[in-house]
Write a structure and sequence with these properties.
mainly alpha; 3-stranded antiparallel sheet; 7 helices
């Protein structure tokens, strides 16, 4: 259940990034989708949107060290928070889940292999997402703690919050920085 919450929360973040991408390009969503979804990874899509943000959001007024605009600071903070969570997103989407069940003997049938009620299954089971033995051979996952239900719940809540932040940014902040397509200058007529 928590894995599903996490995957859905990330899908919402992807949708919010697409909305920002489409808004910045000021084009039909169908055309924006052709470009955006050609990038296969969420990290790559985030990098693309972030690069666009550096061109849309105001730059420091002084070239010799002016302060970043508050909207750029907000974007950079949000981008960093998303990037910090991407490694766990990859683990949730691609690593195996280990399920364990501690059987509570039933008074009427001590040999019953499974609980008679889903509640017993929920209360006496646990699972965690872990790096497989073959994945650990690379050496990158050796210190990664398995993700259990409380960690997945916390992850889902963080990602849902970021989705709301992105939606608010797209609706409230971005419009002030988007200008319509540049109009070509009229050419002087030749006589």
């Amino acid at each position: 259940m928590y894995v599903g919450f996490c995957i859905t929360a990330w899908a919402n973040v992807d949708e919010r990034l697409f909305e920002i991408f489409s808004s910045v390009l000021a084009t039909k969503p169908e055309l924006a989708a052709v470009v955006y979804y050609r990038i296969n990874t969420l990290g790559g899509r985030l990098d693309l949107v972030s690069e666009l943000m550096t061109h849309i959001l105001p730059k420091p007024e002084r070239k010799n060290g002016g302060h970043d605009h508050p909207d750029l600071i907000a974007w950079n903070t949000t981008q960093k928070e998303i990037k910090d969570l991407l490694a766990d997103r990859t683990r949730i989407a691609h690593h195996p889940v280990e399920f364990t069940f501690e059987r509570t003997p039933q008074p009427d049938d001590p040999m019953q292999p499974w609980p008679t009620m889903l509640e017993d299954l929920a209360n006496n089971s646990s699972y965690h997402i872990y790096a497989s033995q073959s994945e650990r051979l690379r050496g990158r996952q050796k210190d990664a703690k398995p993700l259990d239900a409380p960690a997945l719940y916390e992850h889902a809540m963080l990602v849902q919050r970021l989705s709301r932040v992105l939606r608010k940014f797209c609706q409230n902040t971005l419009p002030a920085h988007i200008r319509g397509p540049a109009q070509p200058k009229a050419r002087p007529e030749k006589n």
